[in-house]
């Protein structure tokens, strides 16, 4: 794993499978998080399969979902395939409540 971003209690790492977020995601850090992940995504060759792992996100965070949707959009624009999205239990509930769960390839564990 390569650390792409580290801020007070928040980490964004990249690895062979994709991006992983751990810690608190609020609107103060969402922009930097979205930018760092987007930069990594657009550098990948078209056709690459990526996963997004947000199982380590603390609490319920609409900011984290905003970042996830931005990454999904960027990946599609870059010709990447979002293979799976892994969410914490609280984020799964929030995506279902917001009705965006059907827009994401959520993993079976979610």
Description:
The protein is an alpha/beta fold. The protein is 38% helix and 30% strand. The chain has helices at residues 27-42, 62-77, 89-98, and strands at residues 2-7, 10-14, 18-23, 49-57, 81-87. The protein has a five-stranded mixed sheet with strand order 1-2-3-4-5. The radius of gyration is 13 Å and the shape is globular. The relative contact order is 0.17.
Provide a compact summary of the structure.
It is built from three helices and five strands; from the N terminus they run E-E-E-H-E-H-E-H.
Strand order of the largest sheet: 1-2-3-4-5
**Structural classification:** alpha/beta
Based on DSSP secondary structure assignment, what is the total number of beta strands? 5
Order of helices and strands: EEEHEHEH
* Unreliable residue runs: none
Give the helix proportion (percent range). 25-40%
Average pLDDT for all residues: 93
**Count of individual helical segments:** 3
Radius of gyration, whole Å: 13 Å
Shape verdict: globular
Q: Termini distance?
A: 23 Å
Strand content: 25-35%
User: Main sheet?
Assistant: 5 strands, mixed
